[in-house]
Amino acid sequence: MDLFRKCMEPVEKCLRDAKMDKNSVHDVVLVGGSTRIPKVQQLLQDFFNGKELCKSINPDEAVAYGAAVQAAILSGEGNEKVQDLLLLDVTPLSLGL
């Protein structure tokens, strides 16, 4: 159980670094392999006071979606909404969770 609780430390640190309160988070989007683990999902949902987790994006395809949007921005292709997007690589390397 302690190992699962350690998974929450990067989440807490991220909020601290961003000077945000967990109540100000509108959506919790899960991407990456560890997000398939039911216990991790439960801990996240409990941490965010029962907020429903967004699982509509396939965790394996999330990076590809972001890369496609970045390619459209860099190439100047796509509609105006795409050109107005700003993509930030929050965790460029795996957190190893």
Automatic annotation (TrEMBL):
Keyword annotations of the record: ATP-binding, Nucleotide-binding, Stress response
Cited Pfam families: HSP70
Gene3D superfamilies reported in the protein's UniProt record: 3.30.420.40
GO biological process terms, semicolon-separated: response to stress
GO MF: ATP binding; ATP-dependent protein folding chaperone
InterPro entries recorded: ATPase_NBD (IPR043129), Heat_shock_70_CS (IPR018181), Hsp_70_fam (IPR013126)
Similarity comment: Belongs to the heat shock protein 70 family.
Annotated protein name in UniProt: Heat-shock protein
